């Protein structure tokens, strides 16, 4: 409370300071139009050069600004080439802005400020809404899939509103988070969700997003110090423009359907296999067993999926009331999932107010985003059960004990797999998430010291979730050893954070020297609490959690430019994290970068084919403290048991007290990044691009690792052990083969290759250490391994031996250890074999505008990504047909191996899953015939249009590399209408 | 200018204040009511007892959330991390008494136990090794916390029990792995490399600890669930009975064993009237149990040894993880006797095992059940109320007979015979016509004792050390199905009498040397 009070006090003080006025000036007016279609350009930013005085054009492209008489005006707009025009005594300046694919002059948002792209010294890339993937309804991450070199975005599943895993230049941590920091309108959000929603970023309506900026190297990210090791993504939302109110409607209707089904046996094929196995005798199938087969022919996969119909409506009003620019938008989305009973409904409201007061000295930016999302999660476990459910059984058999659904319980089988249709139709699994992110930024230029600005940013983020997962007592899939118990689970949680940032910026040109210095302070508090109640007819368990952490930072940045050609950026950030002890709490994160605008040197003046050339070199250290679910890892604490883990002594039950493992010396994980980049432009910037080389070395990895037994309160401890190294090359190319008034075409290609290697893993450097087993594929069964000298998450199988015909020989593996004896069961015979991450990742994007038509596509080529096919390894063997006294379906490609028993550690199942994926195809037509004032665009989009791959599973794109019945990504056809008036 | 500088100084003061107050925010203490800092945890006798309860729970349960969650030991499926479950697996799956159905478990290493070809990276020995040392670390912390409070009679007992539980853990360590890393309350938590103690050093340590604490412990059966003087004497007796295994030929301590067993037998225990009553949901009423791990279907849940034995048994429609071999079933001359509680052909199980992963092959074992002696079901359909008897009187009787037969003094063969016949003639079983009946003094031989121990104590975690003590585990003197990985059984190397130090421990502690042959 004291803090809030102080914040308020400080804010009023700033207001008070604002009461000093500036001086009188000349007013310039004009209209800005776009070069490609002669239409008025709203939202163009107009800045008096060398100052922070500026405005933006209104909906008709008009502007008005009062400036010094001999000022120079800088006109800039995302996607267009900036122009600098001296006022030279004029009162009116009209201008045509030309499209600029390279967008070198555009302003990009960076941490605690913004910068002209030509002045950037770090690896910073951004795209505006025009280049987003089309038709994205609920998962903002999907907007940028395939758009940036070095940024991989993998949606976690095809569930509506599903989350996505974003990796910038590969992960640099093992146990600590590998998620990039996401900053929305200046507010860094936490990366844990309160639940009740599949994806915490889904609270943001993709329609409200204006730009995505990615900061990749340390010189760009180090200003965010402690949270920047995995890169930073800055999202800005659309803001209002001065002028009359402009209304805009954007709506979509879509239909999604499954792309592919797994090829499993139908009832006839299945019965034939059962008969065959009964003869051989090893399967345990006898006549009483065969009597359990049914007479139906059910295609369970088709029973659980559907065509998903969705619609989405967005209304926005933007303009200006009494010099108060505003944008208010409302969005409603009703998205069905292709898995029956799954859906998301979201209502969102977004308000941005950005008034400029006190003759431009005080700029306020109030941003508030609210959303209310209801998700029906169904039961994604139905996907796997549908693949393996006995095809001879009917969906319904009318057995009222189990709600009319077929259940193996009716045949006395307590370990049968669950009827997937019953799982969906009898489950009511709904979560509600309400989220508000609001912040106010005040940027005040000190009137008596014009070169100095003070910027205050304060805000909060609150996510409140609640939900339930019910199933009735006659749900045959919920039982305890055959006793039906139903399910009545509920949960609720609140995650919130509060933020206060304050910084000063000094910006001054001294002859050929330009200095832009920033110094500031940041404070953020995260608080999470919640309760889960798992209840059924027999037991009720309540688990509660509550924790918090704080981050306090001091930061500074110096941008120095000499002759507009030689650029230096140095940043320094000192971060304090409440996760570490007083002695280790503070981490110092420096960075320095140099850039040389070679094109501006005299000797290149005459090389007209070259329009831009810049060399960049950067170095920096960033930190990591985000250890999942560990908020006090340095403190000696005791944890009490819950009510199901009490222990009886005498006649009483005791809640037990356990000392928790801790490392009093735990400290920051540090990543050192080296980055070398070159930006270039040819043919008047019709071909532009950049090449980046980077190396990231992470030391003192925050790692949950086996320690010497007996010395702490567990055999595993989260401590600073190990190091890893990522190296990579990124190439970005943008070509504009055609730029005419009525016809523009641009093509973007990006290329990434990253090698990754663990260089140290435990305290002892013992060469026989088998590494850390990860990638679970069953009860205590793992197929991946972290080991020194290999990439993280390398597959770790036995090496299959094949016969002359190329068929795998069941149970026969190469004795790689040379120890003899049984090969299976000795992990020394396993080997590191490929990794889930691709060797090469390419993105291809293109946009074409011809008169009123537009067409775009976005696609990816992933080469050398491997997938462990757990769907097959878990099912494609004959003993799976009859197990635990009941029948399970198996894939038809069991004939590829003819395995009788499961061979899940065979490298046979590690497949090359290279793919080409057409993520997005979109065509549109714009109308303006109806009226001067009304503009409309009709569009048609196909998402996940097609995939070319040799991989046999449903989808070669598998987050983490273990394919195990994820909710499949649908192919979606989408019709969109956009009307502006 | 003055106004300006005033304003600047006010501003800087406010900013400074703000920063100061926020830096203080970094000093956090847990706000979750389930988390207490170590300085505030022990305030009352009851809170000390809650700390003691954890040490007991560390044998029975697996973490701070039942049935799974917030596990004590990592790197392994939480169920496998259960002390008595991994102990049971190592002492039973390696013998003629039990086989497991799922070859992929424990990262594909669990069948190495049946096939007696385990390697240092095997999952289950690794889990038990970690659990033994986890008990030692937790006990050390509690021993430190109670050291200054032993003038309180309750806390003094708690302190002694913590030392007993640590000695019990080290006892299983020396039995299974021979040479263990060693930490006591003198070693504060941190990250260092504890030294290794030999089997002989551990023997001496466990013996001296147990002798030192016995007078401090509660009288036999003073409170159910707690280790008392009876449990302490029983553990000493086990140490002495196996002394030749642990210390080598010529180190026999049968006389010392008999002395401890006499103390146990005088502790007021009596045989349960029916054999089956030791293994049911109300077995806390059995007068025979000396020390048990306690469970409750509603309050103490885990995927522990008994949960697996009861719900993972073949022939009951469940997940059929466990069966037994014909070599063991054939130890019973008469399958109708009260102790032969099997799921046989009528439940779809065959006697012989052609494929170890075939759940229909091999009899199921049904002596443990989650129903009471009156036939009422336990309080939860998936989690047992049944307690796991670690030490019971019948075991003490058979140990007495064995020590006497092996030449220990302080007892006699007549008493031994009476003890053995008491086990074979429980009045309830006699009334049911299912008691196996008395034997003659001529039948009381060491070979008989080994088989009788199997018939009486099967699936209670005693089989591997019994076979080793009788020289029947390694080598080819005694073969059972799938011994050594062969259907009819084959000889196994002498090194298999102990397990290797887990590879993970060799990797994380350079002070540890691998056991001979591994």
Query: Mean pLDDT of chain A, nearest integer?
Result: 88
Q: Could you spell the SSE succession of chain B in H and E letters?
A: HEHHEHHHHEEHHHHEHEHEEEHHHHHH
Gross geometry of chain B:
globular
Average pLDDT of chain B, rounded to a whole number, is 93
The end-to-end distance of chain A, rounded to whole angstroms, is: 46 Å
Helicity range of chain B:
40-55%
Kindly describe this structure.
The complex is a heterodimer of chains A (981) and B (518). Chain A contains eight helices and 57 strands. Chain A has a 22-stranded antiparallel β-barrel. Chain A has 981 residues and is mainly beta. Chain B contains 19 helices and nine strands. In chain B, the strands form four sheets. Chain B has a two-stranded antiparallel ribbon. Chain B is mainly α. Chains A and B meet through helix 1, strand 28, strand 29, strand 33 and strand 34 of A and helix 1, strand 1, helix 2, helix 4 and helix 6 of B. Strand 33 of chain A pairs antiparallel with strand 1 of chain B.
Q: Which terms would index this structure?
A:
heterodimer; A: 981 residues; mainly beta; 22-stranded antiparallel barrel; 5-stranded mixed β-sheet; 8 helices; 57 strands; 6% helix; globular; disordered N terminus; B: 518 residues; mainly alpha; two-stranded antiparallel sheet; 19 helices
Element layout with pairings:
The complex is a heterodimer of chains A (981) and B (518).
Chain A: H1 2-17, E1 26-34, E2 45-48, E3 54-56, E4 62-67, E5 72-77, E6 80-86, E7 95-97, E8 107-110, E9 113-116, E10 124-128, E11 151-155, E12 164-168, E13 181-184, E14 187-189, E15 209-215, H2 218-221, E16 232-237, E17 246-257, H3 267-280, H4 287-290, H5 300-304, E18 308-321, E19 324-336, E20 343-353, E21 356-357, E22 362-376, H6 381-388, H7 420-425, E23 428-445, E24 452-471, E25 479-480, E26 483-484, E27 487-510, E28 513-535, E29 540-562, E30 566-577, E31 586-596, E32 610-624, E33 637-640, E34 647-649, E35 652-654, E36 657-659, E37 669-682, E38 687-699, E39 702-706, E40 716-720, E41 723-739, E42 743-760, E43 772-778, E44 781-786, E45 794-795, E46 800-802, E47 808-813, E48 840-850, E49 853-863, E50 866-869, H8 870-873, E51 882-883, E52 886-887, E53 910-912, E54 915-927, E55 935-949, E56 962-963, E57 971-980
Parallel strand pairs in A: 1-7, 13-16, 50-56
Antiparallel strand pairs in A: 1-4, 2-3, 2-5, 5-6, 8-9, 10-15, 11-12, 13-14, 15-16, 17-18, 17-57, 18-19, 19-20, 20-22, 21-22, 22-23, 23-24, 24-27, 25-26, 27-28, 28-29, 29-30, 30-31, 31-32, 32-37, 33-36, 34-35, 37-38, 38-41, 39-40, 41-42, 42-48, 43-44, 44-45, 46-47, 48-49, 49-54, 50-53, 51-52, 54-55, ...
Chain B: H1 2-24, E1 35-37, H2 45-60, H3 83-93, E2 99-100, H4 105-108, H5 111-114, H6 123-146, H7 153-176, E3 180-181, E4 196-197, H8 199-213, H9 229-241, H10 243-247, H11 254-265, E5 289-293, H12 305-311, E6 322-323, H13 326-329, E7 342-343, E8 364-365, E9 388-392, H14 393-405, H15 413-423, H16 427-431, H17 446-457, H18 463-469, H19 503-508
Antiparallel strand pairs in B: 2-6, 3-4, 5-9, 7-8
Helix pairs in contact in B: 2-6, 2-7, 3-6, 6-7, 7-8, 8-9, 9-11, 11-14, 14-15, 14-17
């Amino acid at each position: 409370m004291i803090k809030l009070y102080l914040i308020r006090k400080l804010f009023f003080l700033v207001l008070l300071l604002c009461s000093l006025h500036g001086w009188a000036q000349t007013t310039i007016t004009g209209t800005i139009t776009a070069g490609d279609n002669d239409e008025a350009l709203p939202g163009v930013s107009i800045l008096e050069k060398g100052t922070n005085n500026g405005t933006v054009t209104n909906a008709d492209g008009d502007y008005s600004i009062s400036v010094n008489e001999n000022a120079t005006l800088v006109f800039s707009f995302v996607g267009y080439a900036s122009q600098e025009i001296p006022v030279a005594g004029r009162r009116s300046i009209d201008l045509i802005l030309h499209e600029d694919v390279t967008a070198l002059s555009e302003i990009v948002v960076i941490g605690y400020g913004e910068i002209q792209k030509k002045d950037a010294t770090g690896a910073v890339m951004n795209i505006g809404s025009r280049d987003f993937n089309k038709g994205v309804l609920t998962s903002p991450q999907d907007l940028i899939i395939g758009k940036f070199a070095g940024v991989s975005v993998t949606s976690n599943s095809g569930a509506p509103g599903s989350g996505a895993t974003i990796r910038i230049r590969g992960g640099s941590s093992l146990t600590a988070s590998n998620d990039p920091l996401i900053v929305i309108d200046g507010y860094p959000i936490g990366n844990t969700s309160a639940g009740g929603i599949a994806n915490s970023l889904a609270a943001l309506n993709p329609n409200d997003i204006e730009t995505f900026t990615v900061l990749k190297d340390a010189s760009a990210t180090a200003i965010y110090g402690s949270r920047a090791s995995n890169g930073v993504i800055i999202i800005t939302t659309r803001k209002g423009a001065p002028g009359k109110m402009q209304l805009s409607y954007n709506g979509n209707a879509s239909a999604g359907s499954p792309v592919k089904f797994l090829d499993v046996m139908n009832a006839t094929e299945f019965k034939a296999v059962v008969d065959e196995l009964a003869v051989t005798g090893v399967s345990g199938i006898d006549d009483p067993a065969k009597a359990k087969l049914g007479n139906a022919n059910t295609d369970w996969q088709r029973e659980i999926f559907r065509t998903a119909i969705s619609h989405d409506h967005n209304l926005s009003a933007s303009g200006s009331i009494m010099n108060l620019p505003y944008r208010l938008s409302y969005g409603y989305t009703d998205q069905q999932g292709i898995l029956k009973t799954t859906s998301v409904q979201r209502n969102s409201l977004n308000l941005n107010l950005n008034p400029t007061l006190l003759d431009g000295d005080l700029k306020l930016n109030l941003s508030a985003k609210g959303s209310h999302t209801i998700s029906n999660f169904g039961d994604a476990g139905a996907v796997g059960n549908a693949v393996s459910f006995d095809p001879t059984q009917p969906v319904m058999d009318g057995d009222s004990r189990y709600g009319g659904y077929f259940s193996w319980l009716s045949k006395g089988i307590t370990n049968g797999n669950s009827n997937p249709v019953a799982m969906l139709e009898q489950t009511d699994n709904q979560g509600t998430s309400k989220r508000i992110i609001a912040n106010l930024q005040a940027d005040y230029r000190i009137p008596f010291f014009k070169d100095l600005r003070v910027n205050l940013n304060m805000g909060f983020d609150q996510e409140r979730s609640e939900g339930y997962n019910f199933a009735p007592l006659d749900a045959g899939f919920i039982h305890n050893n055959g006793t039906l118990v139903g399910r009545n689970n509920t949960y609720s949680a609140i995650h919130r954070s509060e933020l206060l940032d304050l910084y000063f910026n000094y910006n001054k040109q001294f002859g050929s020297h330009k200095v832009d210095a920033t110094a500031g302070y940041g404070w953020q508090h995260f608080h999470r609490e919640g309760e889960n109640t798992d209840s059924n007819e027999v037991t009720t368990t309540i688990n509660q959690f509550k924790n918090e952490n704080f981050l306090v930072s001091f930061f500074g940045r110096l941008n120095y430019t000499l002759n507009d050609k030689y650029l230096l950026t140095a940043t320094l950030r000192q971060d304090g994290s409440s996760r570490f002890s007083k002695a280790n709490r503070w981490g110092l994160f420096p960075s320095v970068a140099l850039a040389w605008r070679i094109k501006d040197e005299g000797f290149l003046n005459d090389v007209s084919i070259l329009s831009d050339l810049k060399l960049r070199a950067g170095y920096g250290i960033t930190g990591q403290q985000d250890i999942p679910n560990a908020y006090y890892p340095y403190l000696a604490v005791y944890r009490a048991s819950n009510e199901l883990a009490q222990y009886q002594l005498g006649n009483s039950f005791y809640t037990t007290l356990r000392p928790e493992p801790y490392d009093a010396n735990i400290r920051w994980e540090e990543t050192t990044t080296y980055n070398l980049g070159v930006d270039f432009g040819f043919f008047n910037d019709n071909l532009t691009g950049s090449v980046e080389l980077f190396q990231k070395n992470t030391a003192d990895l925050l790692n949950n690792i086996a320690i010497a037994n007996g010395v702490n309160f567990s055999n595993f401890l989260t401590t600073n052990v190990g190091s890893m190294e990522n190296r990579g090359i990124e190439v970005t190319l943008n070509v504009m083969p055609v730029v005419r008034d009525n016809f523009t075409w641009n093509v973007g290609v990006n290329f990434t290759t990253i090698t990754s290697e663990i260089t140290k893993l435990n305290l002892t450097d013992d060469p026989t250490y088998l590494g850390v087993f990860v990638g679970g594929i069953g009860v205590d069964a793992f197929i991946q391994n972290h080991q020194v000298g290999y990439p993280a998450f390398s597959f770790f199988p036995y090496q299959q031996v094949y016969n002359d015909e190329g068929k795998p020989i069941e149970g026969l593996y190469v004795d790689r250890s040379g120890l003899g004896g049984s090969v299976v069961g000795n992990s020394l015979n396993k080997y590191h074999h490929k990794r889930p991450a691709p060797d090469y990742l390419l993105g291809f994007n293109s946009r074409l505008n011809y008169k009123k038509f537009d067409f775009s596509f976005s696609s990816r080529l992933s080469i050398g990504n491997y997938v462990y096919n757990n769907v097959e390894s878990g099912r494609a063997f004959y003993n799976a047909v009859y197990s635990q006294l009941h029948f399970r379906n198996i894939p038809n490609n069991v004939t590829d191996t003819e395995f009788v028993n499961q061979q899940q550690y065979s490298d046979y199942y590690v497949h090359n899953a290279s793919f080409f994926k057409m993520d997005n195809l979109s065509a549109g037509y714009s109308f303006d015939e109806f009226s001067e004032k009304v503009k409309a665009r009709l569009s048609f989009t196909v998402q996940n249009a097609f995939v070319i791959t040799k991989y046999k599973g449903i989808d070669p794109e598998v987050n983490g590399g273990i394919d195990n019945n994820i909710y499949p990504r649908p192919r979606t056809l989408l019709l969109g209408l956009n009307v502006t008036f | 200018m003055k106004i300006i500088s005033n304003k600047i100084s006010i501003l800087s003061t406010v900013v400074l204040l703000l920063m100061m107050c926020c830096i203080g925010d970094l000093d956090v203490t847990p706000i979750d009511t389930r988390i207490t800092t170590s300085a505030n945890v022990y305030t009352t006798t009851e809170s000390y007892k809650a700390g003691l309860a954890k040490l007991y729970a560390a044998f029975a349960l697996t973490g701070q959330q039942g049935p799974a969650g917030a596990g004590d030991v990592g790197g392994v499926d939480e169920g496998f991390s259960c002390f008595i479950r991994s102990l049971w697996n190592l002492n039973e799956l390696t013998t003629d008494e039990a086989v497991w159905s799922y070859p992929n478990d424990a990262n594909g290493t669990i069948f190495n136990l049946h096939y007696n070809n385990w390697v240092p990276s095997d999952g289950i020995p690794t889990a038990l090794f970690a659990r033994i040392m986890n008990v030692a670390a937790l006990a050390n912390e509690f021993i430190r916390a109670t050291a200054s409070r032993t003038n309180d009679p309750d806390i003094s007992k708690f302190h002694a029990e913590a030392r007993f539980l640590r000695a019990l853990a080290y006892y299983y360590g020396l039995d299974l792995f021979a040479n263990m890393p060693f930490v006591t309350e003198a070693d504060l938590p941190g990250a260092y490399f504890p030294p290794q103690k030999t089997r002989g050093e551990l023997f001496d340590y466990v013996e001296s600890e147990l002798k030192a604490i016995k007078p401090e412990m509660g009288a036999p059966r003073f409170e159910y669930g707690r280790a008392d003087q009876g449990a302490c004497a029983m553990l000493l007796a086990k140490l002495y009975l196996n002394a030749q295994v642990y210390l080598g030929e010529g180190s026999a301590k049968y006389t010392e064993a008999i002395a401890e067993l006499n103390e146990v037998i005088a502790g007021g225990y009596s045989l349960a009237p029916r054999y089956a009553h030791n293994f049911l949901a109300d077995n806390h009423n059995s007068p025979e149990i000396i020390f048990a791990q306690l469970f409750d279907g509603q309050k103490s849940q885990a995927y522990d040894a008994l949960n697996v034995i009861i719900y993972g048994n073949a022939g009951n429609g469940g997940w059929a993880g466990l069966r037994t071999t014909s070599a063991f079933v054939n130890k019973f001359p008469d399958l109708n006797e009260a102790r032969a509680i099997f799921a046989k052909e009528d439940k779809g199980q065959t006697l012989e095992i052609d494929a170890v992963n075939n759940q229909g092959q091999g009899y199921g074992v049904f002596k443990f059940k989650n129903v009471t002696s009156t036939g009422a079901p336990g309080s939860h359909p998936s989690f047992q109320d049944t307690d796991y008897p670690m030490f019971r009187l019948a075991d003490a009787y058979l140990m007495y007979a064995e020590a006497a037969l092996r030449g220990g003094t302080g007892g006699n063969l007549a008493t031994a015979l009476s003890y053995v016949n008491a086990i074979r003639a429980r009045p309830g079983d006699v009334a049911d016509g299912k008691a196996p009946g008395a034997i003659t003094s001529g039948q009381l031989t060491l070979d008989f004792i080994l088989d009788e121990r199997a018939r009486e104590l099967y699936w209670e975690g005693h089989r591997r050390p019994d076979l080793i003590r009788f020289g029947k585990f390694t080598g080819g003197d005694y073969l059972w199905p799938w011994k050594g990985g062969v259907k009819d059984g084959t000889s196994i190397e002498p090194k298999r009498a102990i397990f290797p130090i887990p590879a993970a421990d060799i990797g994380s502690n350079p002070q540890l040397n691998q056991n001979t042959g591994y």
